[in-house]
């Protein structure tokens, strides 16, 4: 939970999906073994990952070895069909040339964004961002609680009476609670902050002291009996716990800055829209007041 809180503070920047660069494997012979050859064209292990990124969502469910064979077959088909297209000079077709140019630009864009993202993820930058995030975190109280959820107030009152007579809370939760946490964990909800629960539940839980049990509490889910197991100030997550979020934030920020800076210096003309009218020149207007 602490990790999620810091991740929310970091608030990964919302740049368009176009600028999120996917992983592009590099062909290093020692780390990227050759697994097939089709009409003289090599297929490497990393090509399978690229193929899976391309068609993975459309693949049927299958065992790992079958999936591997499927991807190799797909890559072989790509090679033999592209070679056949070359023999028919389809590479000179204007539409094909246009698509190839677009794909080339996209790959170059992704490579540049990856480079910028990696360059931003230095140890110094990561630790500096972590320190800034920790300073911004305000102390938050957390409660560790159990609950029993039932449909009616009468059921809740009956359970309350059993608890006052010495019944074990976890045992009753396993027997009576309609919440999935009942049968599986004896109603244990773990640690949570006040904003993570509906208002009625949170208000009741945070008013209780350690070991206390609430009166029946009504929420949109039904009637609850709550037991507070412990209370504490939410611990600060460690650097290693949030390092992946820190790296993602720095990479996205660097990519966004790169895009914004290049846009500022680029000459972008909208030829599908009429040019805005030129501002009138006061010097050419006889009625314009003369500045003294």
Describe it for me?
The chain has a four-stranded antiparallel beta sheet with strand order 4-3-6-5, with helices on both faces. Helix 1 (2-10) packs parallel to helix 10 (239-265) and helix 4 packs across helix 10 (239-265). The termini are far apart. The chain contains ten helices and six strands; from the N terminus they run H-E-E-H-H-H-H-E-H-H-H-E-H-E-E-H. 50% of the residues lie in helices and 14% in strands. The model is unreliable at 1-28 (pLDDT under 50). Strand 1 (34-38) and strand 2 form a beta hairpin. It has two domains: 10-133, no CATH class; 141-233, Roll (Chitinase A, domain 3), CATH 3.10.50. The chain is of the alpha+beta class.
Summarize the structure.
This protein is of the alpha+beta class and 292 residues long. The protein is built from 10 helices and 6 strands, in the order αββααααβαααβαββα. The protein has a 4-stranded antiparallel beta sheet, sandwiched between helices. A two-stranded antiparallel ribbon has the order 1-2.
Work out the radius of gyration. 31 Å
Q: What is the string of SSEs from the N terminus onward?
A: HEEHHHHEHHHEHEEH
Mean pLDDT: 87
Instruction: Summarize the amount of helix as a percent range.
Output: 40-55%
- Give a short account of the largest sheet: 4 strands, antiparallel
First-last Cα distance? 68 Å
Strand order of the largest sheet: 4-3-6-5
Give a count of the beta strands, DSSP E runs of length 2 or more: 6
Number of domains: 2
- Unreliable parts: 1-28
* Beta-strand proportion: 5-15%
The coarse overall form would be extended
User: What structural category do the secondary elements indicate?
Assistant: alpha+beta
């Amino acid at each position: 939970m602490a990790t999620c809180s810091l991740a929310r503070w970091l608030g990964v920047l919302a740049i368009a999906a176009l600028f999120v660069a996917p992983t592009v494997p590099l062909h290093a012979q020692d780390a990227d073994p050759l697994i097939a050859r089709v009409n003289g064209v090599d297929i490497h292990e990393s090509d399978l990952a690229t193929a899976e990124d391309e068609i993975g969502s459309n693949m049927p469910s299958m065992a790992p070895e079958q999936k591997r064979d499927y991807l190799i077959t797909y890559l072989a088909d790509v090679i033999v069909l592209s070679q056949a297209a070359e023999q028919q000079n389809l590479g000179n077709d204007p539409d094909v040339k246009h698509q190839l140019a677009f794909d080339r630009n996209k790959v170059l864009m992704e490579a540049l964004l990856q480079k910028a993202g990696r360059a931003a993820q230095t140890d110094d930058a990561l630790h500096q961002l972590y320190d800034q995030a920790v300073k911004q975190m305000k102390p938050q109280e957390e409660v560790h609680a159990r609950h029993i959820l039932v449909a009616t107030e009468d059921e809740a009152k009956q359970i309350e009476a059993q608890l006052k007579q010495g019944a074990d809370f976890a045992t009753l939760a396993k027997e009576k609670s309609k919440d999935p946490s009942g049968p599986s964990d004896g109603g244990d909800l773990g640690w949570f902050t006040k904003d993570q629960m509906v208002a009625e539940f949170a208000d009741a839980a945070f008013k209780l002291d350690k070991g206390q049990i609430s009166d029946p509490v009504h929420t949109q889910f039904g009637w609850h009996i709550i037991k507070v197991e412990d209370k504490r100030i939410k611990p600060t997550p460690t650097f290693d716990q949030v390092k992946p979020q820190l790296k993602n934030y720095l990479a996205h920020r660097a990519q966004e800055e790169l895009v914004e800076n290049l846009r500022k210096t680029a000459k972008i003309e909208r030829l599908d829209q009429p040019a805005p009218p030129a501002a009138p020149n006061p010097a050419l207007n006889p009625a314009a007041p003369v500045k003294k």
